[in-house]
User: Fold these one by one.
Assistant:
Number 1:
Amino acid sequence: MALESLQRDGFLTARLDDVISWARKNSLWPMPMGISCCAIEMMATASPRFDISRFGSEVMRFTPRQCDVMIVAGTVTYKMAKVVRKIYDQMPDPKWVISMGACASSGGMFRSYSVVQGIDQFIPVDVFVAGCPPRPENLLHALLELQKKIQREGSGVRPGQREKIFIPETSPVPAAGVAE
Amino acid sequence: MNDLIMRRLQEECAASIERTEEFRGDLTVTVKKEEIVRVCQFLNRDQELAFDMLIDLFGVDRYRPEARFEVVYNLYSLKNKKYLRLKVRVEEETPVVPTVTGVWPAANWHERETFDMFGLKFAGHPDLRRLYMPEEFEYYPLRKDFPLMGIPDSIPLPRR
């Protein structure tokens, strides 16, 4: 096993892409794009009870230059779409997008002239999370699925060609300290 | 109180009033479009009535052949603790109403919103730009003939 070879020889061999993906997936810094009520659940996800830092994503940065994953949490209007896109463009590659909640994913209950009916019309989305708003557990589930995907896909796949993941409303990730 | 308002209005601007209506104590006065600023000035400056607060100003699309639009002014008198509603009827062919920003500065954004949503122009407004929709948007979303889901591609999205 890998551990034995490390103890015996003092080094490990692995594919570079695997090591890089492993490092990337365990320190995803989120860009909190909180534009309406979903943002409250996103903040709860960072709180001690749900504790997103268990998965290495507690460093929410309010500048896109330091972020890896944009969590779009809320209703995106046509006017706001330009802003969301601009912030996405300012994030350094490689970058991922979580579309949190019904509004960001599909327009939600706002079937109206002013609301974009799904943000995948103007940015490539990696994970869609169901819910209005989604529970913090669901957002954590989305993060874990994104981590698996990053490990699986490596660094060769461009945004837009990546696999899309859909997170249903019930989710297996428990809150911290809650027995499974 | 409604009697007093009616009496003072009859004394000062009887010719400006098209119709009055009282429903469960609420007084609604329909005013001639050209005279709205004068009536508002009077209601605002009169010591006795003192309608010093513009609660709301908005448009209505009745979607009928004559006088399709209305502009409604909800006034409040802090002194008398009394509400008053003014209405102006606007034709579709000439959707221009005199501005009341000179009477209540609060009317500024309300009139911009009404312009944005109904396409009613407020003559003399200091800054009549759209309030909610993008400036290059060409339609008026709260008109009854505007589809709920909007006009496809009327607002550009960033390229994917």
Number 2:
Amino acid sequence: MDFGAVDLDENATALLARVRKVLDEALGDSDDWPVRDRESSPSNLHRALGEEGLIAPRWPVLDGGADAGALGDRLVSEELERRQIYISHTPVMLAQTVNKYLRDEPLKQRIVRGIAAGQVRICLGYSEPDGGSDIANVRTRAIRDGDEWVINGAKVFTSVAHLSQYIFLLTRTNTDVPKHRGLTMFIVPLDLPGFELQPLITIGRDRLNITYMRDVRVADEYRLGDIDSGWAVLQDPLNTEHGIGDLNDAGLGDIHGQGKLSTVPASLMLGRIIRWGARRDPQTGQAPLDQPLIAAAIANAAVDLEIARNSSGPMGKVAASEAYARMAADLIEAVGIAGLVSQGHEDALEGGVLDWAHRRSQATTIAGGTTEVFKNILAESGLGLPRQLPVGRRSE
Amino acid sequence: MAEMSLPLVVRRDDFRLTDDESSFPSSVSDYLASACTHERVAQAEPLGFDSALWQSLTQMGVVEAAQASDGDPVSGLLQGALIAETCGQLTAPVPYAEAVAVARLLGTTNGPGAAGLRLDVISGRAVVGLASGSQLAGWPQLVASGAIASGVLGLLGGDLVLLRQDERVPQVPVQGNLPTAWWGPEMSSVTRLLTGDNAQAAFARARSEYMVLTASALAGLGAASLDQAAAFARDRTTKGVPIGALQGVSHPLAECKVAVEGARRTARKAAWFCEHEPVADPKLPAVAFIAAARAADRACRTAMHVNGGMGVMADSESARYLLRSKSWAAVVARIPDVQLELANVLRSPRYQEVVYPSML
């Protein structure tokens, strides 16, 4: 085990300076964390990071990265996190899939280089209006027409679609076989005729989308893997999303995968509420933390957060997302109505951090796979329990 | 932003154990798996102490391995945490966490007789307890190994003292069969080992270490209870299917698994920091203790429920775990006391200014 501080050599220090410079120039020095979220993470920031090789810091310089290893990844992540900026890892993660399954070399190069340059963002086209967590239950149809495919259907809750250039699209190409066998994956340019995005605004003030596809015609070069083999193509991205695999990187990696989407904002929330709790009233000399029940509530939140931070893989997702939502609710109890003065109002407590976190935390148990999906994984792989009972199969 | 100018510290988050780190705890685990059977645990009741088992373990060097050593990079509190997990998993009737914390505390003082007593604790020749209640708890205290101890360390009037009694102190029976007994200064001879700030700092550190080791033991206990319940849920059928295939059964178990493993890892991390950088992240011992106490409680109750009527039988495996889940934590400290201590630590500016989220 090792939790020691890492020595930052000249290269690391130089990289850090580059990251800070890019972020300072793109964002200014305003402390406007509440309005920064992954959906509004601005395109100019992506391009600015990309120009410095900082979208994919560990890729070779020739491929558009910074050749900065796991430490480079970590330094970039920490700088983004403390500014509460989330840069989606989806494009970098999908670059592997694109490299492995796309056959057209120039197209492959264009997409992968575009990812590194911060010019290509990719949204995930899995969930459908009737879908739920059974992502193989796909109705979006792709029908072959010569060298092209004609796609019709709809995807829901597609985050970042309005800022993306491509959609990683799961389609049904065969209805005569069991559902997992009739699927085909595409990476489809979103500027093709037939796409229509309809915004969905969440209680956390994120923009998601319904992505409609009406007779979208896409060339066969955009197909990933073999026809009807989409389920196999999907496995690596799904495992990454579920935090399965080695995330360690000698202690420098994101050990709890998706959990960071919760622990980073939860850290900000807790820090601000501790600051509130420690501040003494000038008249009475008393601080909220002098009250044992408030102290206990804040202590409990700190326990929740630390446990979440130390949980890895699928456990990280469950621990962190549930902790985040619970912490927000419990800290509001402790702080009272002042904590819910709307963000943006001059009376907002600590920038309205509780209003912000209470809204935003709700989606974290749902997005990227519901916690139930992760609990199924844990029940089977962590406890050796049988697969969950498929609906409709009963002995009675 | 003012925080941007603060110095940068990037820490590793590497929970993987090296072969050197896992080697000795694995051999202890192998030994206990064969020696510390369900029957042997039951035979040690109601005292809750198996003297022969403790002699074997101390001769293997379990307490020694958890002492700080300049010459050996592996020995230290992390070894203690890993061994405590095993003791918890097998509900070993031995005062392991207490002995490690006491021996480490005795190592910080030149007080009269401390060095010799430390060697006796390490070798199993003497059992010395730790009166770990907070200053709010006062005296007398129910000490976990009080009924088998010849002495108890505690804080009295701000001084670190060794209480001694020639006669064994009678056991006060508690749930889970700990060898608890009342100890207080009025019924003992009192030797001052440290005074003033040094005494309070040394005692606070020992109490933190006791909490960390107990957290590890509770995580081991909770995990064992879950494993038993999962095995039962694989075999037990209802309406033709294993109950473990039902999400009403599997999801509560999975949630407990998350809680127990989170507590286990946090206790290991806390042990690492106690050993190597005790002032770097001082919230960890309290966090690990509270989390593990709650995780073990939840896991053991859930596991018992999964076992149904079989679970509540007096001699069931799940009863063996559940009846220890509360007393092991409660004998070390009251949770509200620890919460208040934790809140005081959190007031420090380091936890208000979130320089790097990973440090909070």
